[in-house]
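Protein modeling request. Please complete all fields; requests missing the sequence field cannot be processed.
Requester role: graduate student
Desired output: 3D structure, token encoding
Chains: 1
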Amino acid sequence: MCPPRSELRGRRWRSRAMVLVAVLSASLTVGVPASVARPSDADVLVVRLLAINDLHGSLQPPKGARAQVSRADGPATDAGGAAYLAAYVDQLRGQAPNSLLYAVGDSWGASPIESALFHDEPTVKLLDAMGVDAASVGTHELDEGFAEFRRMQTGGCHAVDGCEFQPEFAGAQFPLLAANMTFRDGTPAALPFAVDYVDGVPVGVIGVMPADAASKVSTDGVEGLEFGDELAAIDRAAATLDFLGVRAIVVLLHRGDEPAAGGPNSCDVEQGPARTIATRATPQVDVIFTADSHNQYNCTVSDPAGSPRPMMQAASHGRMVSVVDVTLDRATGEVDRERTQAFNQIVTHDIPPDPQAAQLTERATEQSAEVARRPVGRITADITRDATRGGESTLGDMIADAQLEAARGRGAQIALTNPGGVRADLTYTADGTVTFGDAYQVQPFANTVEVRTLTGSQLKDVLEQQFQTLADGSTTELILAPSSTLTYRIDRAAPPASRVTDLRIDGTPVAPDGRYRVAVNKFLADGGDGFTALRGGTEPASAGTDLDALTRYLEARPVVTPPTPNRISTAPPS
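Delivered output (574 residues):
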């Protein structure tokens, strides 16, 4: 069972006091302590570390493909839901005398309507009830800006909507950590780490955001903030913890790798940003929980000193819990790496749900039901994010068409939308009805649709930025969904800046010096996801929100058929 709330509050206040001392000592650097003789079992303390990641306010069990988790010993299974997640956390804690629970970022943001309608206060209440000890900051915690992020930590009613879910909002009763998020003058914008005492032995936890967080969040969300190098932040915070006598150190890293295949405890993960950080971070770090890629893996990597440590991720949306059992020397606080054990637990639906979490979910669902259940249209079949070889999806294309339709009055000729802004599939039900809640899950950000004038050369530059070169020299691909008025061809084998050819609008070739009105969401218009060429657009105009565009598109038609994703052609593989 979870420890009493009074105990948790006391422990957290001690943690925050320790953090204040640590910040004052942040310039100090120390080495790795000398090894000591292995203690007997009577002199050790076993601590179970639990972690969830990328919950995204998922109180109800996820739907469609997002609900599935692959298993090592059988077919994929449905998983997730707050009531089952809380039940599994309680069960996993009940199996160990000492435990700590962490959340590795994106705990809320891009949430279903039953959480988002109340500015994610129900999700914070869930995490409090589950006894979360600390959470790192992801990118979506900043979707509504720093002031709202601060409110989620310290409490108080929303500045515009007030307290709609409950009369008061106390804020998260656990620290939100980001060691590499600062204001522009270098002042920390969040606590870098926290310390929990487990039977008198300190366990430190460091939160780290992506260094490129500014490109993943709207400019309004990160205004006045800067994000430093992840490795430098980890090493600096770990050195401070070590100076303060904390030898057991956990990192909550909001970076994830892909692809990942196989069961929950496989490690089919290619070299990526998470693995790079996990292998290079100071040997003072004993465990690394990752997030952001929504994958599942259970890996053991070697630190710079050659010692093994786990690097894990637990899928997303509450479908899994990462579990690491560490053995600490009571006298020194050191972790015996050889005795560390780790596994990922799928949150299946074959155990009794937690009644408190079930009641919270039911309350949030009922309070949002009138809005969520309103029909907005009908579809003939699933409209999904599944990508073709060209990178298109039926849902992405439909959303681009909807945004173009909404922006025609502002002169728009084409529309483009990013796959990261499309958060869920539209799943066909018995009569094909699509509700406002369904549409909200697809487009939860309420980004404004912005129209800009680009030259033909600028438009080509935007499309060339779909292929971005990373720091290690590799290329990542992020294909924007085009409206039906835009067609072109991509050749992945061509040199950079020449992969896009035969660019046409309404069948007419695009002239380099021609002027074209392009509709995109505000996140893209501000250069999000690396599409900096869009910042050069002129003659700005707004055309409502992306959610309004989608719902009006559905409402304007008796029924919607999935579009054929044939707007991007591809050269044969070389």
